[in-house]
Write a structure and sequence with these properties.
- There is one protein chain.
- The protein is mainly α.
- The protein has a domain of 35 residues.
- The protein is built from three helices and no strands.
- The longest helix has 18 residues.
């Protein structure tokens, strides 16, 4: 796992909505490929929505 600092996040994403969109797209792909259960994916997305406010102030 690679952790990104604030500068790296800003370089890769235009903002909170962009980050969440990419995250949800990635999680959906993992569900489609059988790597994640739908219930787990839903939890991950909800947690990400809450945590994203801390990342993009």
């Amino acid at each position: 796992m690679t952790y990104l600092n604030q500068e790296q996040l800003s370089e890769l994403n235009s903002g909170k909505e962009d980050y969440l969109s990419k995250f949800i797209e990635s999680v959906d792909k993992q569900v489609d490929e059988g790597w994640l259960l739908e219930a787990d994916a839903n939890l991950m997305v909800e947690l990400s929505k809450k945590q994203t406010n801390k990342l993009f102030n």
